[in-house]
């Protein structure tokens, strides 16, 4: 198994059921549930020096989902270009998430997720099987859709284990 396949599988393994379209909604509800109950002050918390704040992490979810949306769209439409990778840390460094309100970041997350749901749910199932290349690796549009979910669950686990426990929630 290649490093890329291990990376993909790590996220796919996070999806709790085979019904990934339902899991798209459930992961959104869980994320909104957590972030809706944070105070503005709590949203500025990072569990260790050099780690993202909860605000930065939320914007990271939106940023990554947008990149994945584009890949899904491109591959589903038959785009044969090798799409570039992205550096999540560079994106976070340039996000200015700390200058935004938690409410605006949560609104953005909800809109990005709604856009993902519409994109995925209205796509012809055969188009989701299309393969494209991103960051030098071949992958199907459907697998990228599943990565949105697995990536979200991955970060929900980190939030619960490393952030909320230190904020006294768990």
TrEMBL record:
UniProt xrefs under Pfam families: DinB_2 (PF12867)
Record-annotated DinB-like domain positions: 26-159
InterPro entries: DinB-like (IPR024775), DinB/YfiT-like (IPR034660)
Domain of life according to the entry: Bacteria
Protein name (database record): DNA damage-inducible protein DinB
